[in-house]
Amino acid sequence: MKIDHQTLEKIAHLARLEIKPEKADGYIKDMEEILTWVEKLNELDTEGVEPLTNMSFEENALREDIKEAPLDHQRALKNAPKKDDDYFRVPKVLD
User: Fold this and answer.
1) Helix (H, G, I), strand (E, B), or coil: what is residue 87?
2) In terms of C-beta density within 10 A (0-12 exposed, 13-18 middle, 19 or more buried), how is residue 77 classed?
3) Where would you tag: which of 25, 41, 47, 76 has the fewest CB atoms within 10 A of its CB?
4) CA 11 to CA 34: how far, in whole Å?
């Protein structure tokens, strides 16, 4: 499939991208290579192949959800490097 500058500009607009004019030809070449590869994939016979929802066949090993008493303030703050009554003290991040 051929990509022209007008198509590239439309795709960039839809994706909210700003394309620098000096790089447009490189993007067009890359997009054409990707579309050629996808067209080759369409030639494969996938009859009888189940679609994948996940690339891994492993399943999560989840623990049983057991109801426990919540952690009280004193235990939660026990190992805190800095604390102030009921709160953790942390360095200021935003001004």
Assistant:
1) strand
2) middle
3) 47
4) 14
